[in-house]
């Protein structure tokens, strides 16, 4: 297989900073699209992976799975895209396409494992996949998304992970008018969860550790804000929510959040801290509460979310940064100091 070298930003070890490096990309095969990456969002999963917090990182690691770019080349068999199109790539670049989940449009739950955009297994080159902190990426057309024309390209990038990861559970658990929905942790995922749940017609309650985010939460669409570190506020809101999307990146007491659910309510965990989250049996049993999980979303569902965002003019609130500032952005992410997603301007990757 023919390959070529592109510039990228990644890390060689868990304790190392990210730095510029070269990576190998394949030439387009029949169904491939070559994308010149314009913008890439910074997801907390990038940080978990770069620092091996999920204990499965292969190095060198090049993170990035909130990708927006422009098509520069297509294979002979590509029918869905042409050179010059603005396109996007999210957290997956392939799956088996044959299992029942793939056939049902649930590629994220592929029984044979989907191929992550980074730290997955690149079946063409037989090494780990490299993500969007790079000049270009080559992706099978079936895993490439269309970007709605009216949306700002940089602010669209975070929809590819933060957007779909909150959209999918909100849809799956049929959130809508007449329901009170909690969004816990107002970072990249959480702030998208607020915007999407609001647009779906739900009453939105932000659950945050940061009282300073109250005004922003209201601006993003929240009807109410609960400061989770204030026991009185937590008690006053016990048994009030139909559904919670837990978007918290660090260790936290899930039992406190479960106490906010009504009977039969569900807390869907999307945040993925490094260590287990203990659950007290009586957080669930007395009111038949559900503790669930969810990961990203299928390809068709991701396009549906993007089209919905186009229709409702929804994008992320972003801080655009140069790629040389990625390490500093990671430190700020750890402090909750981001409003509300860092996006890398890939034009800054030079040299
Ligand atoms: P982020 O931007 O860093 O936001 C995380 C938020 O969690 C913070 O802004 C903060 O919100 C809250 N938080 C942080 N430390 C906390 C603590 N000790 N106790 C309670 N709340 C705390 O991260 P993100 O990119 O949105 O990602 C969130 C998590 O989802 C990460 O673990 C990421 O890996 C995971 N993720 C999962 C999927 C999936 O498919 N399931 C997809 C993408 C990301 P407040 O200031 O409001 O408290
Ligand atoms: Zn992500
Ligand atoms: Zn499959």
Any overview of this molecule?
With 351 residues, this protein is an alpha/beta fold. It has two domains: 3-161 and 297-348, Medium-chain alcohol dehydrogenases, catalytic domain (Quinone Oxidoreductase, Chain A, domain 1); 162-293, NAD(P)-binding Rossmann-like Domain (Rossmann fold), CATH 3.40.50.720. The chain has eleven helices and 19 strands. Strands 3, 4, 5, 10, 11, 18 and 19 form a seven-stranded mixed beta sheet that branches. Helix 4 packs across helix 5 (188-199). The protein is globular, with a radius of gyration of 20 Å. The structure holds NADP nicotinamide-adenine-dinucleotide phosphate and zinc ion (2 copies). NADP nicotinamide-adenine-dinucleotide phosphate is lined by residues 43-45, 48, 161-162, 165, 185-190, 208-210, 213, 247-250, 252, 270-273, 295-296, 333, 336, 338.
List keywords for this structure.
alpha/beta, 19 strands, 2 domains, Rossmann fold, seven-stranded mixed sheet, Quinone Oxidoreductase, Chain A, domain 1, six-stranded parallel sheet, 351 residues, binds NADP nicotinamide-adenine-dinucleotide phosphate
Give a brief description.
With 351 residues, the protein is of the alpha/beta class.
Output the helix-strand order. Answer: EEEHEEEHEEEEEHHEHEHEHEHEHEHEHE
CATH class category of the largest domain: Alpha Beta
* Small-molecule components bound: NADP nicotinamide-adenine-dinucleotide phosphate, zinc ion
CATH superfamily of the largest domain: Medium-chain alcohol dehydrogenases, catalytic domain
Please tell me how large the radius of gyration is.
Answer: 20 Å
Number of strands: 19
What structural category characterises the helix and strand content? alpha/beta
Average pLDDT for all residues:
98
What is the name of the CATH architecture of the largest domain?
Alpha-Beta Complex
Compute the number of structural domains. Answer: 2
Low-pLDDT residue intervals, each spanning 5 or more residues: none
Global shape: globular
Distance between the termini: 27 Å
Annotation field: number of helices: 11
């Amino acid at each position: 297989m023919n390959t070529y070298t592109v510039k990228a930003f990644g890390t060689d070890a868990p304790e190392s900073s990210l730095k510029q490096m070269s990576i190998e990309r394949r030439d387009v095969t029949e169904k491939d699209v070559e994308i010149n990456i314009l913008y890439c969002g910074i997801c907390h999963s990038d940080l978990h992976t770069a620092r091996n917090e999920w204990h499965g990182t292969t190095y060198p690691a090049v993170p990035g799975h909130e990708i927006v770019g422009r098509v520069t080349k297509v294979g002979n068999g590509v029918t869905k895209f042409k050179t010059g199109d603005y396109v996007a790539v999210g957290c997956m670049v392939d799956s088996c396409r044959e299992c029942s989940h793939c056939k049902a449009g649930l590629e994220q739950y592929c029984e044979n494992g989907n191929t992550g955009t980074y730290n997955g297994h690149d079946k063409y080159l037989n090494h780990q996949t490299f993500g969007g902190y790079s000049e270009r990426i080559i992706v099978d057309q079936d895993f490439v998304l269309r970007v709605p024309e009216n949306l700002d390209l940089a602010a669209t990038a975070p929809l590819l992970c933060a957007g779909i990861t909150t959209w999918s559970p909100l849809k799956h658990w049929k959130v809508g008018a007449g329901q009170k929905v909690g969004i816990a942790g107002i970072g990249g995922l959480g702030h998208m969860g607020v915007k999407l749940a609001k647009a779906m017609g739900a009453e939105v309650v932000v659950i945050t550790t940061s009282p300073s985010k109250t005004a922003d939460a209201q601006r993003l669409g929240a009807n109410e804000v609960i400061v989770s570190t204030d026991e009185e506020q937590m008690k006053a809101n016990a048994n009030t929510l139909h559904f919670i999307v837990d978007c918290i990146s660090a260790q936290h007491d899930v039992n406190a959040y479960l106490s906010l659910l009504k009977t039969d309510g569900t807390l869907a965990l999307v945040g993925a801290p490094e260590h287990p989250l203990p659950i007290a049996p009586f957080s669930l049993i007395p009111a038949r509460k559900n503790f669930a999980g969810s990961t990203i979303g299928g390809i068709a569902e991701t396009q549906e979310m993007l089209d919905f965002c186009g229709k409702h003019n929804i994008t992320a609130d972003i801080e655009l940064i140069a790629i040389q500032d990625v390490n500093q952005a990671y430190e700020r992410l750890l402090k909750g100091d981001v409003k509300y997603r860092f996006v890398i301007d890939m034009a800054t990757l030079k040299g």
